[in-house]
From TrEMBL:
SUPFAM superfamilies: Acyl-CoA N-acyltransferases (Nat)
Protein known as: GNAT family N-acetyltransferase
InterPro entries: Acyl_CoA_acyltransferase, Bact_Acetyltransf, GNAT_dom
Lineage of origin: Bacteria, Pseudomonadati, Pseudomonadota, Alphaproteobacteria, Rhodospirillales
GO MF annotation: an example: acyltransferase activity, transferring groups other than amino-acyl groups
Keywords: Acyltransferase, Transferase
Organism: Denitrobaculum tricleocarpae
């Protein structure tokens, strides 16, 4: 599965950055619906004009609720999918107690790479304030502590801002592949950090 990432790629803001007041923590079962809601809100904002409106405003929210119930939920019917969840973690960014972003990283999930970011999303309206960067750096540090030496993720090929954002953080742009986004076939660009410490070092801030 490709990582459908809507990240913190807007131009930096001159006022106090939202990332200055973040709390980052592990996700819990009680966060399931909040994470699913932010996931859908992020897609509806970032992918408007790429995926069809009928998909973004229709089945998307239900798909995300089902996905996150399987990854985080504690209902018995979710047990099978949760048991087969890849090794890794889901980390949340909160500001004044409210969810403003999240990241899902899996270990030894994508062939050839130790760590793979499947999701990285920041609440629309707060992008460009460093929240996505903080989440990515936090996740990279957690992955490095588990022995991961490299990290990869995928972004839409047409999202030039996201490609530049990750390149500024030290990623190398690799090959493209096609995958469905809702009801449309789109190109995704693989972004790779061959050395995960490029994200964990102070120079990546």
């Amino acid at each position: 599965m490709s990582s459908h990432i809507s990240s913190d790629t807007s131009a930096p803001r001159s006022e106090t950055s939202p990332s200055d007041h973040l709390r980052i923590r592990d996700a819990e079962a009680a966060d399931t619906m909040t994470v699913a809601g932010l996931h859908s809100e992020s897609w509806q904002s970032a992918y408007r004009g790429l995926a069809s409106d009928s998909y973004l405003d229709g089945p998307l929210a239900g798909e995300h609720r089902k996905r996150w119930q399987g990854l985080l939920g504690d209902n018995p019917e979710d047990a099978v999918e949760k048991a087969t969840r890849p090794a890794g973690f889901i980390r949340l960014a909160e500001q004044d107690g409210a969810l403003v972003g999240f990241i899902a990283l899996w270990v030894n999930y994508k062939e050839g790479y130790d760590a793979y970011v499947e999701n990285l999303h920041v609440r629309p309206g707060l992008r460009g304030g460093g929240i996505g960067r903080r989440l990515l750096q936090d996740a990279a540090s957690c992955a490095a502590a588990q022995g991961c030496r490299n990290l990869s993720l995928e972004v839409l090929e047409d999202n030039a801002g996201a490609v530049r954002f990750y390149e500024r953080l030290g990623a190398a742009s690799k090959e493209t592949a096609q995958e469905m986004l809702g009801d449309r076939l789109l190109d995704y660009r693989l972004m790779v950090w061959d050395d995960i410490t490029k994200l964990t070092s102070p120079e990546s801030s």
